[in-house]
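Weekly modeling sync, notes
Attendees: AB, CL, MP (scribe)

Item 1: holo prediction request
CL wants a bound-state model with iron/sulfur cluster before deciding which constructs to order. AB pointed out that an apo prediction alone won't tell us much about the pocket. Agreed to run with the ligand included and paste results into these notes for async review.

Input as submitted:
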Amino acid sequence: MSKLPKPEELIKDVELHKTPVQHWMDTKVEFKPGKFLFAVDPQVMEDLGRPHLGKWQPYEEKWPLPEDWKERILKAIRQRMERFRSFKLFMDICVRCGACADKCHFFLGTGDPKNMPVLRAELIRSIIKGEFSFFGKLFGRFAGARPLTEDVIKEWYYYFYQCTECRRCSVFCPYGIDTAEVTIIMREILHELGIAVDWTMKPVRFSHFIGNHIGLQPHTIKENIEYLLSDIAEITGINIEVPINRKGAEVLFVTPSADFFAEPGIYTFMGYVLLFHHIGLDYTISTYASEGGNFGYFNTLEFAKKLHSKIYEEAKRLKVKWILGGECGHMWRVWHQYHNTWFGPFDYLEVPKSPITGTVFEHAKSHKVVHICEFTADLIAHGKLKLDPSRNDHLIVTFHDSCNTSRAMGIFEEPRFILRHVCNNFVEMPENTIREKTFCCGSGSGVNADEYMEIRMRGGFPRANAVEYVHKTYGVNTLACICAIDRATLSALMRYWVPSVEVAGLHELVGNALIMEGEKERTTDLRYRPLKGYEEGQ
Amino acid sequence: RISSRAEIEVVEHKASPQALIGKRWGMVIDMKKCLEAGEECINNCKAIKACHITHNVPSIPDKKKEIKWIWMDNFIHTFPELEDIRLKEHLKKFPFLLLCNHCDNPPCVRVCPTKATYKRKDGIVMMDFHRCIGCRFCMAGCPYGARSFNWIDPRPYLTSINPEFPSRKAGVVEKCLFCYQRLDEGKLPACVEACPSKALIFGDLGDPNSEIMQILKERFALRRKAELGTQPSVYYLI
Amino acid sequence: MWNDLFVSILALIILILVPLVGVGLLGLDYLFGIVIPYLAFTIFIGGLIYRMIYWAKSPQPFKITTTCGQQKSLPWIKHSRLEAPASTWEVGLRMFFEVFLFRSLFRNLRADLVGKRLVYGSAKWLWLGAILFHLGFFIIIIRHLRFFVHPVPDFITLLDEIDGFFQLTVPTLYVSDILILLGLVFLLLRRLVDAKVNYISYASDYFPLLLIIAIVVSGILMRIFTKVDLYAVKELAYGLVTFKPVLPKAEIGVIFYVHLFLVSSLAVYFPFSKLVHMIGIFFSPTRNLPNDNRMVRHVNPWDYPVKYRTYCEWQEEFRDVLEEAGIPIDDDWCKETQKKA
Amino acid sequence: MLELALRGSKKYWLWLGFLSIFIVIGFAFYIKQLTVGLGITGLSRDVSWGFYIANFTFLVGVAASAVTIVLPYYWHNHKIYGRMTLLGEFLAVSALIMCLLLVIIDLGYPSRVFNVLLYPNPSSILVYDVIVLNGYLLLNLICGWTVLHSYYKGTSSPSWLKPIIFLAIIWAPLIHIVTAFIYQGLPGRHYWLTAIMAPKFLVSAFSSGPAFLIILASILKKVANFDIGERAFQSLAKTVTYFFIAFWAFYLFEVFTAFYSGIPGHKAPILYLFVGFHGHAEWAPFLWTAVILAIVGLVLLLIPKTRKNETTLVLASLAVFFSVYIEKSIGLLVGGFTPNPFEGVTTYTPTFPEVMITLGVWATGFLVLTILYKIVLEVEKRRILIHS
Ligand code: SRM
Ligand code: SRM
Ligand code: HEM
Ligand code: HEM
Ligand code: SF4
Ligand code: SF4
Ligand code: SF4
Ligand code: SF4
Ligand code: SF4
Ligand code: SF4
Ligand code: SF4
Ligand code: SF4
């Protein structure tokens, strides 16, 4: 991280409307510090029973690929083509119109043409043409085909981890070609050889064995929560208890484990707890299913399914009626798009119904999982919350739509509705950088590693640039979001690009604004920052 | 010259070998002869009939939509600018045959945006029905009301059809063309030929020896709205 | 880039020369007028069917709709039916807009780096060019039906009249012909001039554009300049579609055979190239699935059970710390699950 | 940016739907006119231009009037017009679209319209009019859209735009002068044959156009919460006042010339329009309405108190607008063709289909205007969006 240039210099080399003279098939990848991820520690793969290449690093000239690597890759490709119509189709129908080209934040931050989504997909499309198609073999480059070589594997490793699976490209593609889907499948294919990233595989191991990706053991979780509750008591004068692994609760609440432990997620957790106390919700959290986030998803779909199986065993065991999910992007993408297929049908759960307002969440009638924003918005709409938005007056807030909840779920209005009720100063970022056109933080999908800082800061540049704009124009000092990984990645991003902006979860702001019964006069927010009117000397 | 009027282009045309050739075609109409020919002749003017039958001119009863190439009117309407009361009184009983004047300086040609109305070298102000877009600028430009527009499909109003000459569709302007097609065949205009009293005399104003130049030399003749500078080629004898 | 363009131009020239030589010099009217069109059409239909079966054979394991608008959730929140469809009907609507109006392309933006600031401009030219080309193509195809059906249906005659409304030439030049040419030339120029698009273009991207331009130009030539005997054409075309192929006695003109041969080439090329996007768009899972994952369960046919760490295994490992922290222990559950197993 | 016009409130869509009804009806009648011919109008051999061309002439003025805002803003750096220039330019765009539609509709043979470009007659004013009108449309579209696009992107306008804006400023009076020349060069049409026609057109445009903008701006203030600012209103009001005075002064000069000289041909049209001629006075009530409106408008504009009050200002603007509309459209056309070359009077009254077709064109213009303004407002709104 020390070598990272100053923000003004980082993007100096970016050219959005010029391309190299050389054909893209002739350019090779170079693994420079700050621009690649470390390969997985073989021990991790051993523990999880997965193949691996032993100890190696990507910058090595010769990768220790197994003898039969080519056959294994081709077999894996063929198998995915049989299993995924999406993959097969996307390989056939791209017309290379280039509509997606300047939509990817990695392209905008690096200017590297292979970061144009179309070319990213072309990295594998060209192989499928070159290895499986007669005409592809015949016409070669003129038809966009090339043979599979070791360099191609390196290229895949480099570029399929420079895609955060954010789907921004898919919004603009006339056929909805989803390069994220291609990336997901290509990472799986690399896994077949044992090629994976250390930073994402360690959390997978933790999640698998301990239950959450940080490796918090049950008692540590409890201690952390108690510590947060004592803060709450100090700030609000209210003593709250958080039920853990309680059988027979109505609702199982699952959230990413970062919320128990890491700043600024812990403030969001304080917000949740205050909210549940405020309305008297009958709920429990679990130390077994203590991770909502899914790090398996960044590697293979099989891992993704493994890790989240715990949630449903826990729901069954605790005999809850339905599940409430906290703020998280990737977690919700997996929950929304895959869970019902993997774990359904859920006959042991009930159609979610808010015990406070009586609203039946019809749109979750089969899956029986509700997003916390849907839940809170419903409470506010029914006037069940006592709120004092002026307690957030020291903040000028803008909202970052997490790419996953935006483009793989479609949750846009609920968080905004909540924001408008819990704070007085809410500003939108420029139109083309929010909602379905939102930009990724640049470090999602398991690339949030320190050694990757340059790429992360480049990939996050479009998002940061939009924040910088509202910061300069309206004095925005808080970037609200509904994603736990965002809270980690955006914090780093803001420190680099727009240092005076802090990142907050949406429910942290809810927690600030909630008027609790029997509370003392609050003088600070949940982070012990003075509220407006209570600054030093007043 | 340029200051006095916008220049117009004069179009050459190819004449057939048997065609009548003139430098500047014109017409003299002797209204006295008509007067002499009597009410009967005036009410059923053979010249008008001949023209309209030859050129497939429809007879549309609605005055507002009517189409006419040659027609009769009285003195006051024909020469509104001649305010002289005694003259009015004197000429009240005269009929006047009206048609396009084939002006030497025709405003209709000047204003036509597509050159659908154009002036031939021999002085005939021509129409190209294919080119006319029906903008009716020429109608606003002509100070003599010589032009008619096909407001509706004229074909149902044809009493007889002359297959030798095209009929028009709705949307184009038309007017007397000095029987260019007959001249090409070496014949005089249909109206001239049809008048039993020879009240219409057709000839070359550019040739000082032509019949009509002789007549004009001898007799006093009127031209409509001469003060506008359009130089009409149709003269009236009274 | 120039290589790719050059190769596609070369390919096109060969395709034009073949009928010129074949019909013009060798007089192989029968081959070019009847055999090749039948063959091409067979390959076209066969190829498309093969494609569809090929795609349909792979299942779509997950419902991965791309949502570009508000999901259907609470009743008082306005649901974006088109951008996050929740029912089949809404999906149909979304597909309609995609197929006929290129809705996603309509969203297109252009990013520019102005100093240190990224700005996003509206960029609808690609959309316009694409619409001109595709809609023009569609209209031309429909209009061409007048050669193949008898009697000519009224709607085609009407389309013909509207399209040929402006009397620019005799016979009238169709407006759609001009527009499609504009669209095609724009798309080609874009490929050549826009650095990014240029970088991702192969010969197989230039070729179809050039081929279609050549088809359109030969058609316009036939209509306006080197007029061909339309009665002979209709005789031939009508014979082809009624499976009673006859070569008209009257001479049609080589240019017609060039047109027909290029069309046949396009038909053959179609199923095996990117042009299958025409069919593919209907199969696209990010667009043709409703965003109703939490309402309706989607089934993955190749789903398989996975091994994960069960509660009991986990409880065993952490029994001590759980007890120490006072978190409830659940042995009943372990017994229950073991019994089941 | 076009997509911004596709999102709007229920009222917005209702308004668009309301306009579309007129467009559809107008279009249906136009199809009828295409099949039957211009016979479905009230036009005749003697009055060969009518309601279509009358509206055309008026709208050319509205289009030209954009310059009364653009010129002070760009040339004299008149900052208070900042939020208005786009409104002016887009008003010109929609007015020109209406003009071009009306010209096409007035043609007997619209399918041959390209003959004007294929065989242009250099001595025909109409050819030049086609060029200047289309040129002005293009200029305004380019200027307006480029400025708006840079607002949208949040950048400053490109430097190549300046010369184009100045060209547009010079071009604006041209469109109206050339349109005046269509009339003013015809021999035998006494009412039109006057050198003051072009200046009169200009001053009428410079009064009715800004008056229309005042009305539009006050509507925008009500329905879209878009305020051009008090000073901009007053600036516009002054423009309207000066030019409106000039307009009626010019008219009176013409009346003086006709009646002092006593030339019958010159008097006749004016007599016909106001008091009757040969027993015909079909349009006198309209012309007198125009006069009354003019007086009302002028009084409201000249009294500082009523000029400064927005309600009375809008009333005054409405009076000015309709006063000019009556005189310049129908008065001008009917006056020009009456009496006819035979000193007779053929009365002209627009028919129902004619009026509906014209309404359809106005509705189309308003539709275009609404959409363009909607985009402007959306872009403006996105520039400032603090929720409080
Ligand atoms: C091409 C040509 C036939 C040929 O084989 O030569 C022709 C072709 C047609 N004429 Fe003509 N006319 C042709 C010479 C004439 C002539 C003779 C001449 O030009 O010397 C006339 C009479 C004089 C004149 O110029 O008007 C003539 C007067 C008409 C008319 C009646 C005028 C009108 O517009 O109403 C029609 C009827 C029509 O337009 O539907 C007509 C109609 C047509 C139609 C639409 C066929 C029809 O009968 O409905 C043909 C399409 C023309 C187009 O431009 O769209 N054609 N037509 C001749 C073209 C000459 C040229 O280019 O100018
Ligand atoms: C469609 C129609 C005009 C219309 O707008 O109504 C028409 C349209 C043309 N005719 Fe015709 N003719 C049309 C009726 C006729 C007729 C019959 C009639 O007058 O009712 C004739 C005379 C009969 C005959 O067989 O001679 C006719 C004799 C011609 C000729 C002269 C052929 C000859 O050798 O005598 C041409 C010139 C040519 O072929 O180059 C011609 C040429 C044309 C052309 C190709 C114009 C040209 O300059 O070459 C027009 C074709 C436009 C197209 O492709 O759509 N058209 N043409 C007429 C069909 C009406 C119908 O009800 O069928
Ligand atoms: C359902 C029908 C179709 C749809 C929805 C469709 C849609 C599209 C879209 C959205 C594009 C991208 C925009 C562009 O680059 O122009 C495109 C490109 C293209 N389409 Fe289609 N298309 C269809 C049918 C066809 C057919 C029938 C053909 C021709 C034979 C065709 C040929 C092409 C070509 C050549 C391109 C690439 C243009 C370029 O190089 O930029 N399409 N199509
Ligand atoms: C991909 C399919 C095709 C395309 C894009 C195409 C395009 C065109 C175009 C643009 C024209 C100019 C006139 C018009 O627009 O109607 C034309 C004319 C013509 N085409 Fe095609 N064409 C296609 C297929 C065919 C086929 C299969 C035939 C065979 C029967 C054919 C026969 C003709 C003929 C005879 C003309 C002259 C029409 C005239 O003079 O009106 N075309 N074509
Ligand atoms: S937008 Fe879609 S079709 Fe176009 S180049 Fe990108 S992936 Fe291919
Ligand atoms: S999914 Fe996101 S990161 Fe990946 S290529 Fe598309 S835009 Fe880029
Ligand atoms: S962390 Fe948030 S912004 Fe980043 S990739 Fe994930 S969802 Fe997108
Ligand atoms: S012109 Fe001839 S026919 Fe006609 S009224 Fe006079 S004399 Fe009779
Ligand atoms: S009389 Fe009228 S139509 Fe005839 S030439 Fe003169 S101006 Fe033209
Ligand atoms: S109506 Fe026809 S002839 Fe008259 S000016 Fe217009 S185009 Fe020319
Ligand atoms: S000269 Fe010919 S066209 Fe003219 S009025 Fe006489 S007959 Fe008719
Ligand atoms: S009355 Fe006067 S202005 Fe009118 S035409 Fe005659 S001289 Fe000219």
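Recorded for review: The CA atoms of residues 173 and 192 of chain D lie 19 Å apart.
Action items: CL to compare against the apo run; MP to circulate these notes.
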